[in-house]
Specification:
Length: about 375
């Protein structure tokens, strides 16, 4: 009797699940399948954390962008410690560091002064900054008391904290990917739909133009377009200019994909029925054809964001992208171009790690969305 009841309950649950699946929308089915992709879910959490850091970079960074400690130029990363000469501490701390010149090579070295410890403090008042340029405050997530330093990733040639600059640079590097993809989305969607639906000489002109544009090597073309930006432009104008440059290159792939989908769907029964019912061509394209493969477009855009981020990083690294005082990951890497920096100050290459993590996270999320949007995947 008990086994019969358990079997009945299991059958009822299976029936309820099947009913829910049949009644669910396409987006709900995608979300259910995406949740099963553990790597993509973890990568999505990483992306959310990165954008959270970019949004609240002023609060999370221990120092401001204008903060300089020339006496600590090229200081190596400080270690967080829990054990000192006095015993075990229940809260992390750092030692005070002192610099001295080598008498023969004249290189500056740093040693830890173990006589003085500086505990890491949370939500402390430090240097004043303007949060999002709206209001002034001096609250920082973590810092040490006055007289100590907290250079967890070292400093650059001007004694600026590299961790703070990476945190500030994430706002530019991450948002330029979203803005660039948004512009590419508009260009690629409109041009791809027009090319695929109307066909004929319009399609020939658009496709030949795409082929010509895609025949140029990406980096030299980016360099040529970025070099055309006036040197007198403000940092904000350069930022928007670089975004537009990246968008002008990135829309061609999406346009090709949209054109192919439109060509395969424009002769379907639902499209012909809408046309016979008196719907305009624009309504058929925007209300009937595009929504039928919008999930595929979202997957393509997700995979395009890393390309935008790498494009900005490459241009800034080559000196043709964003320029100081704007801070991005590419601008930070430009300071590590020479061999001496790699040999004696390897911590200047730390922004590469954040670029790699971001690109991998977006790729994993894109793979998960692609599997979730595929109706034949399990």
């Amino acid at each position: 009797m008990v086994l019969a009841q358990e079997q009945y309950v299991e059958e009822e649950l299976e029936t309820a699940e099947e009913t829910a699946v049949h009644a669910a929308s396409q987006w709900q089915l995608m979300w259910w399948k995406f949740r099963k992709h553990k790597v993509a879910m973890a990568a999505g959490m990483v992306i959310l954390c990165l954008y959270f850091v970019a949004m609240f970079c002023e609060v999370l960074a221990p120092y401001t962008l204008e903060s300089r400690n020339v006496q600590y130029a090229f200081a190596p990363p400080q270690r967080l410690r829990l054990v000192s000469n006095e015993g075990v501490h229940f809260w992390p701390f750092v030692y005070k560091i002192k610099g001295f010149r080598h008498p023969e090579t004249l290189r500056k070295y740093y040693v830890e002064d173990e006589s003085k410890t500086y505990p890491v403090q949370l939500f402390v008042r430090g240097e004043t900054y303007r949060f999002w340029g709206l209001f002034e405050t001096d609250i920082h997530l973590f810092e040490v008391e006055e007289g100590g330093t907290l250079f967890l990733l070292g400093t650059d040639h001007l004694g600026r904290d590299l961790l703070s600059r990476i945190i500030y640079g994430s706002r530019i590097s991450l948002t330029i990917g979203l803005i660039g993809v948004s512009l590419s989305f508009v260009f690629g969607l409109v041009i791809g739909v027009v090319s695929g639906y109307y066909g004929g000489w319009i399609d020939n002109i658009i496709q030949r133009g795409i082929e010509i544009l895609r025949s140029f090597p990406s980096i030299p073309l980016w360099m040529a377009l970025a070099a055309a930006l006036p040197a007198s432009w403000s940092p904000l104008q350069v930022y928007m200019g670089i975004t537009v440059v990246l968008s002008l290159i990135g829309w061609t792939g999406l346009a090709r994909q949209v054109r192919g989908k439109i060509l395969s769907l424009r002769e379907e029964d639902f499209a012909m029925a809408a046309l016979l019912a008196g719907a305009s061509r624009w309504r058929i394209m925007t209300r009937h054809l595009l929504p039928s493969f919008m999930s595929h477009i979202i997957v393509s855009l997700t995979l395009a964001v890393p390309s935008m981020i790498l494009g900005e990083t490459s241009l800034s690294f080559l000196g043709l992208g964003l320029r100081p005082p704007v801070t991005s990951w590419g601008v930070l890497l430009k300071e590590a171009q020479n061999v001496q920096a790699v040999a004696f100050q390897p911590w200047l290459l730390t922004p590469v790690i954040f670029v790699i993590i971001t690109v991998l996270a977006f790729n994993f999320v894109g793979d998960g969305l692609r599997d979730a949007a595929d109706p034949y995947s399990r």
